[in-house]
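ARCHIVE CARD
Drawer: 12
Card no.: 0347
Subject: one protein chain, sequence and derived structure
Cross-reference: see card 0346
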Amino acid sequence: MAISFKGAQYPRSVILFAVFFYLRYPVSYRDLEEIMAERGVKVDHATLNRWVVKYAPLLAGRAQVCKRATAMSWRADETYIKVRGKWTYLYRAVDRDGQTVDFMLSERRDLPAAHRFFSKAIARNGTPERIVIDKSGANLAGLQAVNVILKFTGGGSMIEIRQVKYLNNILEQDHRFIKRITDPMMGFKALNSAVATLAGIEIAHMIRKGQFANENRSPFQVFAGLAE
């Protein structure tokens, strides 16, 4: 079912363009307000923020369904995101080819958070053959907990866990795109807006990496197609 834009005071194409531009490029809401004005669209920065928080999670949900299947070998790690002046943890996983598997923002970096992230990623993408992590004890314990569940529920073969830091270089490089977009934002004021915005940024990054069938469409056309 297509995402509804009913009740919006602006055309769907305008809303999607503004949301995509904010998620894809390192601009502030006030910068985007000026950019939209130059294109003949008068919209204030608060409205732009509401659009991103409302529509980015909806588009992210569609993206998880539409993206290409990922490889069965993953790399998982966290990067830091500031929310309300405090550091939070963006759990991320990519496959051996650098394709995004999944992501999750957490206020804590501990066993419950790691277990929640791996369970979420597996539920959406299937059980991988192996996952490479760094020396994080929480991530190791989280994956071991997942393996216990797989063993006793017959939910699939147990996951091979490898703790080799240098093998995660591909993920460290991948973090850089996310940070390049979030750094100009100077942190988020609320967790819900951070979750929504980061979900959208991850979509833009996935499009950039060619994780959707593009059929010779531009990145914006691929993004807008997720709303159909």
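Annotation on reverse: The chain has two domains: 12-68+190-225, 73-174. Strands lie at 73-83, 86-95, 100-106, 130-133, 160-163.
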